[in-house]
Amino acid sequence: MNSISIAIYLDVENIQGMINFEDLLDDIRLKVINEFNDIDKVVFGLKKAIGESNNLRRFRGQLSELNFTIEDAPHITNKKNRADLIISVDALEKLHVGNPSFDMFVFLTSDSDYSIVMNTLRRFNKQVWLIGTEEDSQRIVFKSSTDQILIIDDYKVIQNKQTNGSRKATNKQTGFNKIKPFLTNQLNQRALAAILKVMRSYQEEKVYTTLDTNNRFRQIDRNLNLSQTNFKKFKVIYRVLEEAKVIEFEENSSHRFTINDKQKVTNYLNMVLQSENKS
Predict the structure, then answer these.
(1) Same domain, 19 and 142
(2) The domain containing residue 247 runs over which residues?
(3) Three-state DSSP state, 135
(4) If 0-12 CB within 10 Å is exposed, 13-18 middle and 19+ buried, where does residue 137 land?
(5) What is the domain-level CATH number for residue 266?
(6) What is the CATH number of the domain that holds 38?
(7) In a structure prediction context, what are the per-residue pLDDT tens digits for the chain, which is 279 residues long?
(8) What is the value of pTM for the model shown?
(9) Is 77 found in the same domain as 192?
(10) Are residues 138 and 11 in the same domain?
């Protein structure tokens, strides 16, 4: 079994709004498996969140459950703290010591000062990924110092402020009403969330197979027994997603499909995750 070891650093001073960190880790795991065909196991060997205590407080519950190391970095002036320096030194120390050795370093930040440590890590043949804003993804300083940039807004917890009437209308228009009947059961919600996370990592128009998707599903939720859900089998989930216009099977095939609208996948996933939080 080929594995890849990842160190992830969160500079919480750069996070606006509430982030679903479990969703973020799942998406990194899936994107790594998609990116490197010979990798079948992803290990987060180091998970560290650093920031000022008031900012850390917003995320402490989530981060503790996900076994992040949480470190307070008090402000040393009115606005600036030392999170960037602490993270940079820590990453370079891990590179130098090499025990354990990490294949990839992931940074959540909008601070261009990190480009220095990012470039250094890449010179030693390490993969470097950034989680930043849409604007960050277009900045030359980050594009030239990273291998891939993920958009932080994709992992934000979205509060649905629609009225019941407008929500029903939207669901009818989008096809989400095909999925909605399954959201009353927590196991069904877990199954839908896991498979939609897999599909969010896919590219539009490219052909995928149900077998590969099933294997990636198990990377997200290894402990879920599908027979305990209302779906019972994977083929039922695919039928529901096909009826909801999330996927489209090739003609005369029951296992090869495409995704034509990734935004729809992301929207539906957010709705399912909201349902999980309410349960």
Answers:
(1) yes
(2) 164-278
(3) coil
(4) middle
(5) 1.10.10
(6) 3.40.50.1010
(7) 689 999 999 999 888 888 999 999 999 999 998 888 788 889 999 999 998 888 899 999 999 999 999 999 877 766 666 888 899 999 999 999 988 899 999 999 999 999 999 999 999 999 999 999 999 999 999 999 999 999 999 898 865 544 444 444 444 456 889 999 999 889 999 999 999 999 999 988 899 999 999 999 988 888 899 999 999 999 999 999 999 999 999 998 889 999 988 889 988 998 898 887 666
(8) 0.78
(9) no
(10) yes
Of 137, 155, 173, the residue that ends a domain is 155
Give the residue among 6, 1, 68, 69 at the shortest CA–CA distance from 43.
Answer: 6
Number of domains in the chain: 2
β-sheet bridge partners, residue 151:
132
247 and 129 share one domain:
no
